[in-house]
Amino acid sequence: MPAPRKLPDAFFARPDVVTIAQELIGKYFFTSFDGILTGGMVVETEAYSGDNDAACHAHLGRRTKRTQIMYEHGGVAYVYLIYGIYSLFNIVTNTEGTADAVLIRAIEPTEGLEEMKLRRGLDKIETRLTAGPGLVTQALGISTHHNGTHLQGSEIWFEDHGKVIPEEEIVAGPRVGVAYAGADALLPWRFSLKGSKWVSKAKPKY
DNA sequence: AGTATGATCCAT
DNA sequence: TGGATCATACTG
């Protein structure tokens, strides 16, 4: 087993956001705040592809205060508040000027389980710990304050543990919560690890 | 300045 | 099936 290595900017700066979303399954996602390490293995992601994707916040080249971070060079965090309650964490991908991103929807927890349980307000470790995009951020202590954080720093980063996930172990399907996006809602841009109990329970509607 | 709406989650 | 709860984005 090779030593874990931090995923470099070059991993996220590639042009195909769908491939990046798929390859992130099996990688590791960590945060370290105040010396507390939390995180685990990525088991569910979604790709959002810039101005030609009706489900993407930057659809039709929309540039607002919220979306401007999406146009940065790959390798920084895009964190936004949804429904007034949950912070959703994305990785900006591709090069400067394009607005692609990958949403992290679920992880299999491996580090800091007790702390994550505490942050989530649960009394025992269960799949609700990190199975859902709003739950992952809560468990890892991520909020909108972390928007724009560089993923090579000491607070939020990804690692490759040399784990190889065969393609047949990855399930592709339509994204969750984007029914308003018309035909683009049908794109199979949600990826999850087959059989993992840590994948979110949410199901896309048509 | 007002308003509608969500890349969600959970209890009912 | 709806309520929580508010930043964002769009309208006038």
TrEMBL record:
The record ties this protein, via Pfam families, to: Pur_DNA_glyco (PF02245)
Which UniProt keywords are listed?
A: DNA damage, DNA repair, Hydrolase
**What Enzyme Commission number(s) does the record list for this chain?**
3.2.2.-
Q: Which domain of life is it from?
A: Bacteria
Q: Does the keyword Disulfide bond apply?
A: no
For the keyword DNA repair, the answer is yes
| SUPFAM superfamilies reported in the protein's UniProt record | FMT C-terminal domain-like (SSF50486)
Sorted alphabetically, the Gene Ontology BP terms of this entry are: base-excision repair
Similarity field: Belongs to the DNA glycosylase MPG family.
Spell out the PANTHER family in the cross-references. DNA-3-METHYLADENINE GLYCOSYLASE
This protein's name: Putative 3-methyladenine DNA glycosylase
Q: Which organism is it from?
A: Rufibacter radiotolerans
Q: Species lineage, top-down? A: Bacteria, Pseudomonadati, Bacteroidota, Cytophagia, Cytophagales
